[in-house]
Amino acid sequence: MKKRSLGLVGVWVLVASISWGKNYRDSQSGISLDYDESLWEVAPTKTLEQETLVNFQRKVPDKEGDTTYFSRISVVKDDLSKIKKLKSSKLPKLQAYQNHAAEFLQSQRFDILSSEKKELPGVPGGAFQMIARQRDFGLTFQQVGFISGDTAYLVTATVRTKKYPEYQKELEQLFQSLKWTP
C-alpha cells in the first residue's frame, strides 16, 4: 500500500498522511472518503428512514468464529424538511439536528458518551461528532454529521464495544479523510 499525502486542500489545513488505497465518492451528494480496501469492502445497503448512500463492512468479523456481525460504516442522508422538531427549533440547524440525532440514539437504548462540534478539513460549515454505546448489543457508534441546505449527512461507524479502542485510530483517519464538495 503506498502512502499519499493529502497536502493542502483549498484553504484547508494540512491533514496528515493517509496510507489507504481506495477512495469512495458519491457523485450525487459530493461526499468522498478514503478507506483501506484490505480491511473494508462495500456491502449491500438497507434503507430505513434515511437514504443510504453506501455501506462498508469489515472483511473479517470482530470476534473469532462470529459469522453474523462485522463492523460497519454507513453514509446516509436525511431530509430535514420531514423532521417537525427542527422546523420549530430556535437553535442553529446543525445543533438542532445534533440534538435530534442524540434523542434518536437514546430512544434506541444508546448511552451518549460524547457529543461535540467537530471541524473536518474537507467539510465546510462544520460538523458534529457523537460517540455512543448501545447497551443491549455491545456496540459503539462513532457518528459524524453535517448539513447542506435541507439535507443532513451522517457517517456512522459501528463496532463491537470491546474492539472500539483497537479501531479508534483507523476510524478517526477515515473521518478526517471525509470530503464534501457541493
Order of SSEs, N→C?
Answer: EEEEEEEHHEEEEHE
Helix content: 10-25%
Strand arrangement, largest sheet?
5-6-7-11-10-9-8
Q: Tell me the overall shape.
A: globular
Number of strands: 12
Radius of gyration: 16 Å
Going by helix content, strand content and strand pairing, the class is alpha+beta
Strand content: 35-45%
Number of helices: 3
> What average pLDDT do the residues reach?
80
Which sheet architecture does the biggest sheet show? 7 strands, antiparallel
- Low-confidence runs (pLDDT<50, min 5 residues)? 1-19
CA-CA gap between termini: 30 Å
What labels would you give this structure?
about 180 residues, disordered N terminus, three-stranded antiparallel β-sheet, alpha+beta, about 40% strand, about 20% helix, seven-stranded antiparallel β-sheet, 3 helices
Which helices and strands, and how do they pair?
Blueprint: E1 4-5, E2 17-18, E3 22-26, E4 31-35, E5 40-43, E6 51-58, E7 72-79, H1 84-88, H2 93-107, E8 110-118, E9 127-134, E10 139-148, E11 151-160, H3 164-177, E12 179-180
